[in-house]
Protein: 2-oxo-4-hydroxy-4-carboxy-5-ureidoimidazoline decarboxylase
Amino acid sequence: MPDLPAFNSAHQDELRPLLAECLAAPRWVDAVLAGRPYADVDALLAAAHRAAEGLSDDEVRAAIAGHPRIGERATGDGPGARWSADEQSGVAASAAERLAAANAAYEERFGHVYLVRATGLSGEQVLADLTARLANPPGVELRVANRELAGIAALRLGKVLS
Structure:
């Protein structure tokens, strides 16, 4: 995986699949690529965050569709599946049954999987967040999910550069 100078100079076809693993939104990937070269990692992360904030509702829904349910493992063996497993490592099996029920209620209400930047969160913390977010109006919740996508993308960009 490239460091920042390698990221700045790599051919876009080499980076495009890695960036899509960070956030599966083609317009976001294009914006991150177009902003190169970045002076430092903070500039890259700021540009990535701005691009993620500008996603349309349809782009957010499409990006969410690539994520597994919280408490479930992603399929495949690519970097996104490995990153997802690492990000959800704090979600204990003890909360799995309650998370499954809460996930089902969330999906019924909003029509997409619940998404949270789970790194560092316990299963109980995730469950509390999911339960609280069930009270959001659908439009508000989609924007909350958009912010979570941006946070996940930033985390994963850091992994791309390490």
